Amino acid sequence: MDTLNQEQIAAALWDLDGWAAEGEAITRTFRFADFVHAIGFVEHLAEVAEEQQHHPDIDIRYNKVTLRLSSHDAGGVTMRDVNLAEAIQHLA
Q1: What is the C-alpha separation between 46 and 48, in angstroms, rounded?
Q2: What are the residues facing 71 on neighbouring strands?
């Protein structure tokens, strides 16, 4: 799968609230009421990621979950990342 250039990434992120391009990835931090809610979100996210066979890098800090999406095999952001970000958007 081909990587997206900066213009394509910007266009793809236009409708995705809170997502930003960062190096060779797209990222977003979600905030929840507490740790239990943050982990619940990650559990639902795991199901979606497994369905798409595309898995984000996840950083959990108490009530904050930071996701980093990148297609490592392609060396940057692809439509797989954008599609997963769209699916995650519906979970939050």
Answers
A1: 6
A2: 76
In a 3-state reduction of DSSP, which class is residue 10?
Answer: helix
CATH topology of domain 6-16+33-91: Gyrase A; domain 2 (3.30.1360)
Give the global pTM.
0.93
Tens-digit pLDDT string for the chain (92 aa):
799 999 999 999 999 999 999 999 999 999 999 999 999 999 999 999 999 999 999 999 999 999 999 998 999 999 999 999 999 999 98
Q: Please provide the DSSP assignment of 16-67 as one string.
A: STT-EEETTEEEEEEE-SSHHHHHHHHHHHHHHHHHHT---EEEEETTEEEE
Stated length of the chain: 92
